[in-house]
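Trying the structure run again after the queue cleared.
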Amino acid sequence: MSAPIVFFDIAGPDESQLRTFYQTVFDWPCGTPGTFVPGNAPNLDGMIRGDPSEKLLYIGVPDISKTLENIETAGGKTDVPRFEVPGVAVLGLFFDPAGNRMGLVEMNGDQPIIP
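Done. Tokens:
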């Protein structure tokens, strides 16, 4: 069996601001300081690519355009608006208030929308 990804963390200088941001935009319940429990995807795919070093987490949402509006309202910034990768997924990219770059995948229930 391959080793699963079992944890990730999101860091920034203002923990309270980040907790509020992710609770507000993605409805992630936050527990004791420094912990939260996002929803779980039934399958977690990954990719390794030859580009400048970075790590991206992609969060599944029903409407990328609406989510990017909510991100802007909550103090984040749109990096790349909603776009389609034919045969792969519908994506968008944003920065959280601490400058962490994250991705969005448009979902229909628990499945990504494949254009």
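The longest strand covers residues 77-85. Worth checking whether this holds up in the mutant runs.
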